Amino acid sequence: MSQEVLRGCDHVRLGRVAAVAVGPAALALSRGGADKPYAYYQPNEDCTGFASGDGGTLIAVGDAHKGWEASHVAIDVLLQRHGAAWTAAAALGEPWPELAARAAAEVHAEVLRQGMARDGNPDSRTTLVFALVRPADDLVAWGSIGDSHVFVAGPDAAEEITGTPDPPRWFVGSAEREPGEIAERLRTGTRPRNEKRAVVLASDGLSELNIGVANPAAAVAEAVQRAAAAGPELRPLEAARGLVETAQEAHRANNAGDNMAAAVVWLD
Questions:
Q1: Would you say 36 and 258 are in contact if contact means Cβ atoms under 8 Å apart?
Q2: For residues 99 and 167, is the Cβ–Cβ distance under 8 A?
Q3: Per-residue buried b or exposed e for 106-133, using 16+ beta carbons within 10 Å of the residue's own CB
């Protein structure tokens, strides 16, 4: 299994984009194109990562609040505990909603444990969105807590498939929530690939009102369309980096920024 993670604590300069790609997967991360217009704990609290194996690729994005610790722990735990099994050549063996819910509960419990440990940050909490692509099974599966996004993009358009999160906003790592509550609240879904070009995750640095773009799905579609013109080995990287750069342009135009993370699995 191959694995990569981009952590906000390592990327804190305005306007810079960190990006990495291996095979069909790519990540991009930025503090943003302009400073945040609200009080914040740390300059870049997003985190994104992927794990790839013989059977598929798992991508994930976390958007932390009140400190970067929760998103960093959440992505590490998800990939390290579940990446190898979910991306192996062997079949998953259990229904996706059960696998995803159990993983979300485990991640939540570990974020809480580390937050309460000495030198931890008990206030930090995070959105968590993840997607698993298994080509041989013709499967795109996803899970989401919070307001980060999952898109599927075709040649002409992109569609967000996570729906609207229920109020009040739920987060992984919220001390008032039990792991079982997180498992029950996790939104999940599966679908066939349906000749789509890419699965794209994004934090709300893309979509936040008066900060991000006016039409997030259109921005994803445009980034994927531009990437399709690149060489096959560069398409995932160009899509992820291009989407973060588009978000940064909106931040500068609005004179208000936010952290922005993107993860892509290219399907062609």
A1: yes
A2: no
A3: bbbbbbbebbeeeebbbebbbbbbbbbb
User: Given pLDDT bands bounded at 50, 70 and 90, which one contains residue 268?
Assistant: confident
145 and 171 in contact (C-beta within 8 Å)?
Answer: yes
* Residue ranges per structural domain of the chain: 2-266
pLDDT tens, residue by residue, 46-72:
999 999 999 999 999 999 999 999 999
What's 10's DSSP letter? G
Q: Are 86 and 60 in contact (CB under 8 A)?
A: no
Residue with tokens 């990939």: 79
Calculate mean pLDDT across residues 17-41: 96
What is the mean predicted confidence (pLDDT) over 215-223?
A: 98
How much is the pTM?
0.97
**Residues near 196 by Cβ (< 8 Å), separated by ≥ 6?**
140, 152, 153, 154, 267
Q: Which of 202, 214, 198 is nearest to 133 (CA)?
A: 198
**DSSP label of 85:** H
Residue from 9, 30, 51, 73 nearest 262 by CA: 30
Of all residues in the chain, what percent are helix, strand and coil, respectively (each to 5)? 35, 30, 40
Q: Where would I find the beta strands (DSSP E) of the chain?
A: 2-7, 18-22, 25-30, 46-52, 57-65, 125-126, 128-134, 139-145, 149-153, 158-160, 187-191, 198-202, 260-266
pLDDT for the residue numbered 227: 98
Confidence at residue 164, expressed as pLDDT on a 0 to 100 scale:
74
Place of tokens 């940050």: 121
CATH homologous superfamily of 2-266: PPM-type phosphatase domain (3.60.40.10)
Contact 29, 18 (CB under 8 A): yes
